[in-house]
Amino acid sequence: xxxxxxxxxxxxxxxxxxxxxxxxxxxxxxxxxxxxxxxxxxxxxxxxxxxxxxxxxxxxxxxxxxxxxxxxxxxxxxxxxxxxxxxxxxxxxxxxxxxxxxxxxxxxxxxxxxxxxxxxxxxxxxxxxxxxxxxxxxxxxxxxxxxxxxxxxxxxxxxxxxxxxxxxxxxxxxxxxxxxxxxxxxxxxxxxxxxxxxxxxxxxxxxxxxxxxxxxxxxxxxxxxxxxxxxxxxxxxxxxxxxxxxxxxxxxxxxxxxxxxxxxxxxxxxxxxxxxxxxxxxxxxxxxxxxxxxxxxxxxxxxxxxxxxxxxxxxxxxxxxxxxxxxxxxxxxxxxxxxxxxxxxxxxxxxxxxxxxxxxxxxxxxxxxxxxxxxxxxxx
Length: 380
Prior knowledge:
Distance between the termini: 76 Å
Number of helices: 4
Largest sheet: 8 strands, antiparallel
Strand content: 35-45%
Shape: elongated
């Protein structure tokens, strides 16, 4: 019986020893790593903005009359002073003629009154006429002069009303739909006849926070100096394409919105081909012209805890360690590391779920990883 128990105990020890051997000989998990590398990054901000026309005017009828002629195609490009609408002119031409005739009449009266006044003045100086005759002549002269001034004002008003019958483009731009067709009665109480917008240059408005405002104001100060500022302004469409023309900051509001902590900023963009259209939403990219050297790692390698950001690294002993890091500017799929890593260290990008701290791993360096794949870069 004792012999049997000893044999069973020995067999158990043998099996336990085999299990330890098999466990010790299990291969370390494979992971993919990327080496921390030096590169260049560009600081930038990405903000949603809306395009606005540089100038916009509602064309309205300032005099009443039937709409006689429309001289443009809806949606077409128009030039400054190009005739667009014509309101019937006959009654306004007649008013000009009547005012002209009235002016001529009072001018004749004025001339006669002036002659009489001058004659009475000389006679009075030589005591050859009564003072009353002189006073009457002076009063008639002043009345005639006032009548001329009134007639001139009436004629000017009539001419102005006549000019209002010919509605022209206030600037180079694009005109929209017309509200009334030919033959309709229009006047000062009517709705707008059409809308004209100036599309070159084009404005884009967006809001930035207080911290970014300080940097922007510093750059605008550089722009006012002999040397140009270091900020590039770009717009990107919803399909990801970037507009070919660069813009410039033209305006920042005079106060920060206390409820949002942001301020309204405006940039101007050349728009010679009229690709930019008012009302469009775009991504505004504020980007430094100058690049700076930085240590870069893939963004996919970063993990976060309550204490902050960290990465898992593989040391020279092929064991896993942890590095607490601080990050800076994003650069495509990569990000700047400002503290916690050194150039050449290997950070794990694949297989993170298979490893534990201080455990051995089998690292494979991804030699195909490119740190600056994307042109657009943004600030973290």
